[in-house]
Amino acid sequence: MFFASDNAGPAHPKVMDALVKANTGYAMGYGADPIMAEVRQQIRDLFEAPDAAVYLVINGTSANALLLATMCQPWQTIFCTDVAHIHEDECNAPEFYTQAKLSLVPTTAGKMTADALRTKIKAEETRGVHGPQRGPVSVTQVTEKGTVYTLDEIKALTDVAREYGLLTHLDGARFANALVALGCTPAEMTWKAGIDAVSFGGTKNGALGVEACVIFDPKLAWEFELRRKRGGHLLSKHRYLSAQMQAYLADGLWLDMARAANARCVQLAEGLRQHNTARMLFDPAANIIFFDMPRRDHQRMLAAGAVYYVMSGDPDHGDPDEMLTARLVTDWSMTADGVSRFLDLLQG
């Protein structure tokens, strides 16, 4: 009954096997290994983007920060939501690497609208040399509230960005979960919808630690390479990143794992709807649920071994009837039986 985070789940055995297989003999470092050449082509084929620049880093924070730095000048501002991972959970790494600021767009259910984005963009670049200049837009998919932008919603945001000559970045830490939820292709969710660069996540979906930085304009490639090296994120024994990504993509494993995680989230949501005192805050679209429940129920669940984050208040102290917000996240390895045990305990 472990629902704290998809970061906490195991890596898939096929990913681990690929690492063992790659750990034989010698291979050139820094991305010159033969596996990386195959991975680069795999990702280009996957995104229907034969000229895309493809690079690997070890985590999502470095992927987001390095891509945004490549797309941004230090005197600019990056437009993102007020709940974006780059704002709330990356310890100012984007600001550190870009030397820019973040302009926060208000959200509904974790998503910004085209109108809200336009309003925020129009408010900047109004003070000449004294104020921040307009920079890239960053969109999180799946959002931090477990919701998913439709293709039309993404296109509406990128259209606004293009009105002002701005690039758009997609934070796809849970890219696969969003993709299977929408039933679309990687190209449709990215460059065909106006996205210029994507952090293509693997770590949260069964990899040990690897993310792909996919840049659809190859003119940005060399700057990214320099920033990756300067920032300390060019791994010398790069083949261990390459091997993970190769296994992740092989035979659609990445999609199979996302489907499994999303299916367990659907099972959880159905059970929560039947509980008298639990109330979901957003309609879960992928593998994350936010819900309110009385403190007494949280105490009972946590004491019985359920593991998840209570996001508001102290679950151990206070009014037993006070409603506290919590988050449940399912990963590829969560079983139907594990969800059933949680729901049976919930119904108590």
UniProtKB/TrEMBL annotation:
Pfam families noted in UniProt: Beta_elim_lyase
Stored InterPro entries: ArAA_b-elim_lyase/Thr_aldolase, PyrdxlP-dep_Trfase, PyrdxlP-dep_Trfase_major, PyrdxlP-dep_Trfase_small
Keyword field: Pyridoxal phosphate
Domain of life: Bacteria
Keyword Hydrolase found: no
GO MF, any single term: lyase activity
The Aromatic amino acid beta-eliminating lyase/threonine aldolase domain, residue ranges: 3-281
Cofactor: pyridoxal 5'-phosphate
Keyword Zinc-finger set for record: no
A Gene Ontology BP annotation from the UniProt entry: amino acid metabolic process
Similarity annotation: Belongs to the threonine aldolase family.
Subunit structure of this chain's protein: Homotetramer.
Stated name of the protein: L-threonine aldolase, low-specificity, putative
Organism expressing this protein natively: Yoonia vestfoldensis SKA53
UniProt lineage: Bacteria, Pseudomonadati, Pseudomonadota, Alphaproteobacteria, Rhodobacterales
